[in-house]
Design brief:
single chain; mainly alpha; globular
Length: about 550
């Protein structure tokens, strides 16, 4: 309570200082006449300073930076106490939202127009500086062995499931609106809303998964779906916006579908290309041989993701998709060409940057309650949209699980997606950062006139409601359903006693080299890493390759 009181006083002081400074400048402007012939040299000098708008803006910007940094600091401190006292019922993401709401209320009370303008969410800033580190870290630090053995099911949920959710949410919202039961959105506006609200963001859920040591395949399904469907939702939004300029017809639908495939496929190629380029450079430069080049390794490592992102955006593809697959590719190839120190430091560095960016987004999500003009009268639309999201999530998870189970065995890894897993996946469909930012982008572009404001308000409230309700109850749900990882090898690999959770690598057993894995080990890894392929020798009884018809991994095992 003392910390909260100190922080509130700090926020009030910063807001008041900014407001007072702005008022002083305005008063000076009103009392000073630069054309006054009787003005003294001192007055003329003062007038010149007052007219310098840049200085005023710079001062306000400094206050905003201090305010934002203070919000981040308190959010992390609050999260620390939640972690320390094992409080699962209050989601960590909710800390940032609450602090953002409190800050927004104070800023609004200060009535500082410049201060309020600068605290508005800039979608371009998010897409260029905040979202890339979040998405790249998800690809770079993922538990790749569990991810790739579930890749079929993940793609079914991310592509088919997101498409089902888009059209179902859009259809329900549009239909209910036409019946007059809530604010009526247009047909295209409803579909765009369905696309953006289908982007899940279970950051709070996944944090609890790690604490309770949830089944690693369940973790990978929820994580993989959220990462890919963020990218799918962004590409779907871009594809649907095409219909603003074209009438809906068979040809335009085909063009939109083709645009989706081209954007996603082109972005995938760009991301993988830069990942392979970075792997070749690090392999041939051999920086890993000298610890003197540690910081050079890390700084070079940071350049390739942004090159992939900017190249994809420049080619009118999706930078988010490109940087995701760049992260996956660099984790698979480039990582093995780094020094031991760079391997450990790079994972911590990208995790730190992603945490900062993600926390910043949640603070801004709370701040948006006051920094944007909300259409508070759309309560019925919010309720209808929230119910539509829950219904669509059912038709996403359960049919897609049925389809994914056709290719999965009842026993082994990965096993069938059972009813417990399906319910947890349905419950893990929180909405958050990506949905909010697409809504802000649509609002900033004025895609649908007054409907854009309604979409923004609805998205904002659904994100807040799902984060606090589902994020707060997920710990209780996991304990009740008992979905902990039972395999001791998997527990030691994913949740080692020394800490680190899914950040830890080099603990898993190598996967059997069959199909694409065999082709990757035989042809790709020898080219792009220091890996040496060895054919199975059936005459060696103790060779794992003889038993598993596999190749022996002499470098880092796939994780």
């Amino acid at each position: 309570m003392k910390l909260a009181a100190v922080f509130v006083v700090l926020l009030v002081f910063i807001s008041y200082s900014c407001h007072a400074q702005e008022q002083n400048i305005i008063e000076a402007d009103q009392t000073s006449d630069p054309t006054d012939p009787n003005a003294t040299p001192d007055q003329e000098s003062c007038n010149q300073e007052v007219e310098d708008e840049g200085e005023k803006q710079a001062a306000v910007v400094r206050f905003v930076i201090v305010l934002g940094t203070a919000c981040l600091a308190l959010t992390f401190l609050w999260g620390y106490f939640l972690e320390k006292f094992h409080i699962f019922w209050f989601p960590e993401a909710g800390c940032g939202i609450v602090i953002g709401i409190a800050t927004g209320a104070i800023v609004k009370a200060a009535r500082s127009s410049d201060f309020k303008d600068l605290t508005k969410f800039d979608p371009e800033f998010f897409f260029i500086f905040l979202l890339p580190p979040i998405i790249f870290e998800a690809g770079y630090n993922m538990k790749r062995q569990a991810f790739f053995r579930n890749i079929g099911a993940i793609c079914v949920f991310a592509f088919l499931g997101t498409t089902i959710s888009t059209f179902l949410v859009g259809g329900i919202v549009y239909g209910i609106g036409q019946l007059g039961w809530c604010h009526p959105l247009g047909g295209l506006a409803s579909l765009v809303f369905g696309a953006l609200i289908s982007a899940t963001d279970p950051v709070t859920v996944l944090a609890v998964f790690q604490k309770v040591r949830a089944d690693i395949d369940l973790y990978s399904l929820v994580f993989g779906e959220s990462v890919l469907n963020d990218a799918v939702a962004i590409v779907l939004y871009r594809a649907l916006i095409i219909f603003k300029c074209e009438p809906i017809s068979a040809g335009s639908i085909f063009n939109a579908f083709g645009s989706f495939l081209i954007i996603f496929g082109g972005s995938f190629i760009v991301g993988i290309a830069f990942a392979l380029l970075s792997a070749l450079i690090f392999k041939n430069c051999a920086m890993h041989l000298d610890s003197e080049f540690l910081f050079l390794e890390l700084t070079m490592l940071c350049t390739f993701p942004y090159m992939a992102f900017m190249m994809a955006e420049g080619l009118r593809f999706s930078g988010i998709v490109a940087i995701l697959f760049c992260g996956i590719g660099m984790a698979h190839y480039t990582y093995n060409n780094l020094s031991k120190e760079a391997k450990s430091t790079s994972r911590s560095l990208f995790k730190t940057l992603a945490t900062l960016a993600e926390t910043f987004v949640f603070v801004y999500l709370g701040l948006a309650m006051f920094s944007f003009e909300q259409t508070w009268s759309q309560v019925k639309l919010i309720i209808v949209a929230l119910v539509a999201c829950l219904i669509a999530r059912v038709f996403n998870v359960y049919p897609c699980s049925l389809l994914a189970n056709l290719g999965r065995k009842p026993t082994g890894k990965p096993g069938r997606i059972n009813q417990k897993f399906q319910f947890v996946m349905w419950f893990s469909g929180l909405r958050g950062a990506v949905a909010f930012v697409i809504a802000v982008t649509s609002y900033s572009n004025n895609d649908f006139g007054p409907d854009s404001a309604s979409i923004l308000t609805t998205t904002l409230f659904i994100a807040v409601i799902t984060v606090f309700s589902m994020g707060g109850l997920i710990g209780t749900l996991l304990s009740a359903l008992d979905v902990k990882e039972k395999n001791t090898d998997e527990v030691q690999s994913a949740y080692p006693e020394g800490g680190g959770g899914l950040m830890v690598r080099d603990q898993s057993k190598p996967m059997k080299a069959k199909g694409l894995i065999y082709w990757d080990r035989k042809y790709m890894k020898p080219i792009f890493t220091r890996y040496e392929f060895k054919e199975p020798n059936p005459n060696e009884p103790h060779n794992p390759a003889a038993v598993d018809d596999d190749a022996v991994t002499t470098e880092i095992p796939l994780q």
